[in-house]
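User: Teach me something about this protein's shape.
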Amino acid sequence: MPKAKHSEYGEIKKDAHFSLTPTSIEGLDKMARQRRISRSEMVERIGRGLIPVAAPEEDRLGESCAN
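Assistant: First, the predicted structure itself:
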């Protein structure tokens, strides 16, 4: 049976599977709890650009400051 369209996004969701460390799962869950959304919705919003993540140049800048 095909999945129903998501009412907010108007698209049919596809299954995706990720392997994460326990630490990253805890961090993802914490961010989701703070927003009162599910882990899946957290990933959805990050993927849609609704929750910003650091740009690659910002990642490298943080690494150089830490050394």
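Now, about its shape. The radius of gyration is 15 Å. The helical segments are 22-35, 39-47, 56-66. If you'd like, I can walk through any region in more detail.
User: That's plenty for now, thanks!
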